[in-house]
Structures are given as C-alpha cells and as structure tokens.
Amino acid sequence: MTLRASDIIPISEARARLTELAEDVVGSGAEKVLTKNGSSYVALVDAKKLDYYHALELEHASLMLLTEAETALGQITAGKRLSSAKLDKLLAD
Questions:
Q1: CATH fold of the domain at 1-45
Q2: What's residue 1's pLDDT?
Q3: Is 31 exposed, middle or buried (0-12, 13-18, 19+ CB in 10 A)?
Q4: pLDDT tens for each residue of 4-63
Q5: How far apart are CA 6 and CA 92, in angstroms?
Q6: Which pLDDT value is given to residue 79?
Q7: How far apart, in whole angstroms, are the C-alpha atoms of residue 50 and residue 30?
Q8: How far apart are CA 26 and CA 8, in angstroms?
Q9: Whole-Å CA distances, 73 to 66, 79, 91
C-alpha cells in the first residue's frame, strides 16, 4: 500500500488525534507513519496486519533455513562437505 502525504503525521499531532488515527488505520487499512523531528519514528498498523507481518517473517525464516539445508545436502552429496559421521571419525583418529 502506498503512503499518502496525509498518512505521515508528526507525533505531536498524533497525540491529540490518536483515536481518530487508530480508527482510520483499522477502518481503511491505511498505515500511518508518525514522525519525530521530521524523521520517521513509529508506525500505526492494524493489529491483524501486524500479526500477518510476523507470520510472513517466520515463514521467510523457515524458507531460509530450508534453503540452507538443501544447499548443505547438495554439497554433502557432491562430496564438497563431510558428513557428521565422517567428521567424527576424522576427529577420533
């Protein structure tokens, strides 16, 4: 979703309009960026959307782990890495 100029609000103004801003975020799905000293500071996001963002983050982390595991297995089968059993044997010798 694209931010509009009206979605960027100084935090000092947001204090007075918090209920109104929260209702707009929940009602329209618009996210609000609150600024402090002219720079982005925090954002108001619907709690359901935040949950969704967290789920995506976990899914991404899982996919990254799977990709790393797939790469490692490919390297092991290609003889580019030692299996843990071979490594244990070499360390024991």
A1: YefM-like fold (3.40.1620)
A2: 62
A3: middle
A4: 888 899 999 999 999 999 999 999 988 999 999 999 999 999 999 999 999 999 999 999
A5: 67
A6: 82
A7: 13
A8: 16
A9: 10, 10, 21
